[in-house]
């Protein structure tokens, strides 16, 4: 056997070995990829939360602009202790049930998202 034939055989063996290795890597990685847990369903992703909250924030802003008295009330709460804020908001909502209902309706997509995705409810 000549030296060029040996070189050719060696090249063929290397090519076959490389192909086998590449195939093992390809099929091996496919098996590992199949064993990974499924991705988080789209409705509960961080992107979807951001989308929901941006909509709630946008609608809240529109509501406050359209209702200056409500905007003034919430603006007046700045800097107060949280326990006082909660009491004042409760009193305000009791005196203004339409405002309470309007704001609950605006925040409903956030509540729905939190319930659907197993997140704690916000006050």
Automatic annotation (TrEMBL):
Residues 1-35 form the signal peptide. The lineage of its organism: Bacteria, Bacillati, Actinomycetota, Actinomycetes, Mycobacteriales. Residues 100-123 are annotated as: Disordered. Residues 42-118 form the Haemophore haem-binding domain. Keywords: Signal. GO terms for molecular function: heme binding. InterPro entries: MHB (IPR032407), MHB_sf (IPR038378). Pfam families: MHB. This is Haemophore haem-binding domain-containing protein. It comes from the Bacteria.
